[in-house]
């Protein structure tokens, strides 16, 4: 044993018993200590290494509990023959190089996914990212508060590591969300109509699976949110394009659609990507149409907290007592996207089946995060963060609008309402969208053309500029680089 040259460092931050454990484990794995070899007594080893006996006992205990050593009563401690590391390793299978790979047959759902474009990795040459359209100012998020609340959630005991029993999500969070929605969006619901999901994207996916059969018709705004359209198409639904004008989705086109649609997906508070707000008259007309036709409305209220000059118009959900609206919200914009927490507010009768859909999909959204988020809302941090971000984004938006007006003049028109984390701009130019994009990239600026968001709508010259995550300096620099694209 003394030949093993165990290296211990008294000045290291790693406790001595942990160092000894590491050294002995390595010796066992490398074969320097061999199967069935008897270990020295703790007293002998402690003496040889000039350390305390407790230190040796602690490292032996860990090695025994992990299966590297075993004790034989009245005989001693021995190196185990079946090491845990070997049990964990699976044999490496050598691929047979010449075997032709037969195609794997996909379901029709799988085959539809082949056409879905994923976001590209950011190009390292890009200096100004106007293409991060929905990205909040993440460096402004009060991470120290989150850290405190998350660590509090972690200290609540082992139950926090288990599945919660409620398939709709952590009840105190659902209560906090229903209070918040009533106050900020006039959404009328009780906590048992709220289901916590992994962002709006999962909300769309679960709802599409619950409500759409192959061949069912769903109306979408055109231009509209392409990631929602992909979900409906993958479900085998027929997507019906409905134009959007300066007051939002055009209801007459919707109501004359034949055969009738079963669902309509809308972003009324801040239409994506045109940024128009659905007028109150149109909201009432949409609700009246839904009630008359029996269609359901999926209301995606993804960034309604950010309106800069007027009070938000109440959500569609709160304007009706009927069962026709399903409301979807997310914390991706108000807090941070990697949180992956959103929610659905459904008519009471849908809650049990939606809970089952969530359970079969991924059981639950992470409980520690749900608990930290409930505290974040209940202690007022959400409200104060939204208030602060509203001011910050309003300034950034103003900086962008001013820079565009000064540097691009009549070569660009700002579209839509004074809201959200991005701005739609119409460029007046003979250049094609590809030429604009390429020239901008050459100048280190990336923008999002709304081409992918359009079905029949004319996307020419229309780009979405995300500003919320950019400092005023970056915004100004970005626009002056852009101006050169058109000169
Ligand atoms: C229209 C719309 N809905 C929802 C979302 C948010 O999705 P998630 O909650 O899955 O992050 C976005 C994100 O960009 C969006 O643009």
Sum this structure up briefly.
The chain is an alpha/beta fold.
Describe this structure in words.
- The chain has helices spanning 16-30, 42-49, 53-65, 84-88, 108-113, 143-154, 171-185, 199-211, 226-234, 251-255, 280-293, 351-362, 367-378, 381-408, 433-442, 472-486, and strands at residues 69-72, 76-79, 128-129, 194-197, 217-222, 238-245, 248-249, 263-266, 296-300, 325-330, 342-345, 412-415, 422-427, 445-446, 448-449, 462-466.
- By secondary structure, it is of the alpha/beta class.
- The protein has an eight-stranded mixed sheet with strand order 4-11-10-9-8-5-6-7, sandwiched between helices. A four-stranded antiparallel sheet has the order 12-13-16-15, with helices on one face. It has a two-stranded antiparallel ribbon with strand order 1-2.
- Helix 1 crosses helix 3 (53-65) and helix 2 (42-49) crosses helix 3.
- It is elongated and about 90 Å long.
- The structure holds pyridoxal-5'-phosphate.
- Pyridoxal-5'-phosphate is lined by residues 134, 199-201, 225, 267, 272, 300, 302, 330, 332, 337, 342.
């Amino acid at each position: 044993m003394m030949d093993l040259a165990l290296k211990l460092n008294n000045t290291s931050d790693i406790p001595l018993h942990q160092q000894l454990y590491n050294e002995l484990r390595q010796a066992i794995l490398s074969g320097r200590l061999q199967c069935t070899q008897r270990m020295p007594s703790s007293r002998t080893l402690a003496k040889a290494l000039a350390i305390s006996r407790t230190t040796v006992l602690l490292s032996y205990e860990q090695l025994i509990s992990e299966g590297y050593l075993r004790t034989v009563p009245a005989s001693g401690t021995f190196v185990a023959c079946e090491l845990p590391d070997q049990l964990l390793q699976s044999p490496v299978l050598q691929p047979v190089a010449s075997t032709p790979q037969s195609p794997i047959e996909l379901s029709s759902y799988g085959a539809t996914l082949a056409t879905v474009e994923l976001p590209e990795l950011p190009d390292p040459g890009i200096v100004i990212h106007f293409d991060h359209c929905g990205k909040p100012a993440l460096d402004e998020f009060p991470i120290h508060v989150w850290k405190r609340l998350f660590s509090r959630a972690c200290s609540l005991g082992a139950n926090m590591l288990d599945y919660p029993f409620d398939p709709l999500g952590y009840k105190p969070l659902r209560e906090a969300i229903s209070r918040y929605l009533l106050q900020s969006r006039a959404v009328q619901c009780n906590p048992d109509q709220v289901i916590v999901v992994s962002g709006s994207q999962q909300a769309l996916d679960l709802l599409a699976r619950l409500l759409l059969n192959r061949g069912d018709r769903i109306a979408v705004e055109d231009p509209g949110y392409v990631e929602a359209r992909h979900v409906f198409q993958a479900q085998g639904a027929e997507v019906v394009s409905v134009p959007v004008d300066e007051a939002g989705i055009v209801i007459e086109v919707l109501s004359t659609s034949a055969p009738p649609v079963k669902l309509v997906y809308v972003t009324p508070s801040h239409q994506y990507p045109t940024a128009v707000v659905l007028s109150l008259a149109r909201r009432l007309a949409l609700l009246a149409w839904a009630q008359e036709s029996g269609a359901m409305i999926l209301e995606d209220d993804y960034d309604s907290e950010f309106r800069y000059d007027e009070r938000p118009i109440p959500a569609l959900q709160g304007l009706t007592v009927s069962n026709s609206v399903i409301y979807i919200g997310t914390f991706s914009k108000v807090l941070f996207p990697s949180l992956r927490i959103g929610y659905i507010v459904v008519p009471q009768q849908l809650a049990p089946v939606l809970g089952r859909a969530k359970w079969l999909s991924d059981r639950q959204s992470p409980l520690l995060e749900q608990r930290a988020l409930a505290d974040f809302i209940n202690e007022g941090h959400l409200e104060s963060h939204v208030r602060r971000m509203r001011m910050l984004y309003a300034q950034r938006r103003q900086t962008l609008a001013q820079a565009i007006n000064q540097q691009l003049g009549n070569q660009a028109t700002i579209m839509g309402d004074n809201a959200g984390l991005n701005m739609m701009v119409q460029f007046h130019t003979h250049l094609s969208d590809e030429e604009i994009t390429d020239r901008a990239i050459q100048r280190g600026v990336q923008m999002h053309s709304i081409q992918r968001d359009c079905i029949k709508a004319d996307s020419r010259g229309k780009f979405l500029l995300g500003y919320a995550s950019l400092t005023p300096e970056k915004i100004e620099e970005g626009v002056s680089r852009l101006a050169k694209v058109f000169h």
